Amino acid sequence: MTSVSELYAYYLAHPVVSTDTRYLPKNCLFFALKGANFDGNTFAAQALEQGAAYVVIDNLDCQVSARCLLVPDVLQALQDLANHHRRQFDIPVIAIGGSNGKTTTKELVSSVLSAHYPCHSTKGNLNNHIGVPLTLLSMPAGTEVAIIEMGTNQPGDIAELCRIAQPTHGLLTNIGKEHLEGFGNLAGVKKAEGELFDYLAIHGGCALVNLSEKYLPKMAQKVPMRVGYHRVEPLLPEPGIIEVSMIAEAPFVQAAFLSDEGPRVAVTTQLFGQHNFQNVMTAIALGIYFKVPASKIKTALEEYQPSNNRSQLLHYQGATILLDAYNANPSSMEPALQSLCAMPAQKRIAILGDMLELGEDSQKEHESILRFAAKLKIDQIILVGKEFGKTPYARVGALHFADNKAAKHWFDAQIFEDTAILLKGSRGICLEYILAS
């Protein structure tokens, strides 16, 4: 069997890691992971033929070469190797969890800290038991700050990711109704996300706490070392707390903070809506805490452009579209709808896709969102997916389509003029397809 220290020596010689034969860089280390419908061990020979330097396997029958490194469990070996690599760095490692806005917050924090330090962060949303190890193993020498996004859909996930990444600092964006299939209820969400604060409390870490978010101040009390930040109007320096004010939320978020030199610094971002103010405020707070010059904080936030179906503002045939279709749950759907109502336009259309993984509460939560949307100043509500199909949508004049293809057929037949449109739904609904040419 190959030990972790032996595996690390192979990694240092071949520091690119892959878990997918479709994306196999030359001279990489290939980890033959198992999935629900595949066994990576069976691809060992193929990976070597395609140029992998070594293949890590846990099935002796697939050891076709001396370059097949046998371990008891491939996933555990990947995680242990990542942890071993992380322990070579005596640097701040910032974990970011929470129900909504993790990836946007991570991107904003990374933009701010990267303006002043050699910084490494999660790419995309590689935030699970495989993504976090891959993120750590791609961390280069010379990194001075690491930002690790951590996702969860069942109890114990965050605790395991903390064991691997060993964060020194951590924050939760918020607590909302997410993955209720796995958590059961809001109390379950709080307990699961709170595993980050549990880890920081036990290991002497620092919690960065948005005091303006419900639940977080109380949840973070268990962590002795805390740094708070919140929204205030007007800015009045308060010892021990970082303050940020909101100048505007539409058409784009504008915020202000006090620099160490004293003057008020105003920031105009390319993000839309009050929910994104929370993400911007977090990035400002971390920039201040880690002593990034105010001018660099301002520039980093003003130059950041949202992408990948998250808070993107697009122009399409006479319409302004708020594309926020990467994911959705009840806690993120409401502020997205409020953002739509704040958009300057003669007509507003909400195109809402199913919110997945809500378990027994699914119908109740979809009906609640429909009622919420119906009370707002929205001219037309379009619903997509079978869960929204179970709601009394006809009573409020909403249209329903079974899937994104049917919704696109309707969309392509419309003529838009001075119209604001929100596209918001869970990843599985793929609402961005509606805009495909």
Q: What's the overall average pLDDT, rounded? A: 94
* Number of separate structural domains: 3
DSSP helix fraction? 25-40%
How big is the Rg? Answer: 23 Å
Instruction: Supply the CATH class of the largest domain.
Output: Alpha Beta
The largest pleated sheet is described as: 9 strands, mixed
Number of helical segments with 4 or more residues: 16
The geometry reads as globular
Strand content: 15-25%
Task: State the end-to-end distance.
Answer: 52 Å
Low-confidence stretches: none
What is the CATH architecture term of the largest domain?
3-Layer(aba) Sandwich
Largest sheet, spatial ordering of strands: 6-7-5-8-9-10-11-12-13
Give a count of the beta strands, DSSP E runs of length 2 or more.
19
Structural class: alpha/beta
At the fourth CATH level, what is the homologous superfamily of the largest domain? Mur-like, catalytic domain
CATH topology of the largest domain: UDP-N-acetylmuramoyl-L-alanine:D-glutamate ligase
